[in-house]
């Protein structure tokens, strides 16, 4: 298959590329503006060629090529999509805090950028379009979160991701683009060096001797999914027949408080690194959701997928990665 991966230099993109290269038989085109991931990040997982010219975009080279471009550039997005069998759209403004600080930039990237990629998929006749979303569009709900819930975003980030989901639905029904929306839980794991989410941030702070800050009292809950489980879900969403137009919660169906996570992570740091990390409770963060975990039964039934990684094992593996990074 020919895979176009937007944001492919990032944490999830590199993990997907690693899986595809191990599987063999794929051509991979990375489309990234290098605002987060870098050429060095991509080079750490594979040798790649530059695909800057796009003189003959339908002619895909073997292995991996990088196109440095932005999803807000509709013309380049269309050119890069020529000949693709699947687009995995990972490029996005991520996280609640940046969206609260600059809602307009969040909207531009997550709404207009997604629209550009869907237009590219439509005109290039791409067979499958996998959209990376999250639980944020559902907002303040009584968990477990599931696909039939009415969305109530609690942040601009949730609103922009909901718009992306809406456009995916519209392009499936209006134009026949086989869109598949994956609502990721809180992803962690090896390779997350540049992530600012809680697991990666806490590990980096602990290794630097800093005190960890939990926002609020630590009772807020999340559904933490290891990168290996997530990549299996993306692969299934890209290749499984008969799921066009569908939405899936991709998480573990297990609710963990941030306080519990911190205790598990502190234990992993002690066991793997000999570090006694300390933490304190700070102010609650604006736009944060109090409870968040998912019912993944639809993914089990329709995707043939379920999470397998135990949180304690996943955290120890992640700490070991950071120690060796």
Describe the structure in brief.
This protein is of the alpha/beta class. The protein has helices at residues 11-23, 39-43, 74-81, 96-101, 103-124, 156-175, 198-207, 227-239, 258-273, 297-303, 311-324, and strands at 2-6, 27-32, 49-50, 63-68, 86-89, 128-134, 179-184, 186-188, 212-215, 221-222, 224-226, 246-250, 256-257, 279-282.
Please describe the topology of this protein.
Layout: E1 2-6, H1 11-23, E2 27-32, H2 39-43, E3 49-50, E4 63-68, H3 74-81, E5 86-89, H4 96-101, H5 103-124, E6 128-134, H6 156-175, E7 179-184, E8 186-188, H7 198-207, E9 212-215, E10 221-222, E11 224-226, H8 227-239, E12 246-250, E13 256-257, H9 258-273, E14 279-282, H10 297-303, H11 311-324
Parallel strand pairs: 1-2, 1-5, 2-4, 3-4, 5-6, 6-7, 7-12, 8-11, 9-14
Antiparallel strand pairs: 10-13
Helix pairs in contact: 1-8, 3-5, 5-6, 7-9, 7-11, 9-11
Number of strands: 14
Q: Mind telling me which CATH architecture this is?
A: 3-Layer(aba) Sandwich
β-strand percent reads 15-25%
Helicity, as a percent range:
40-55%
Structural class: alpha/beta
Q: Rg, please?
A: 19 Å
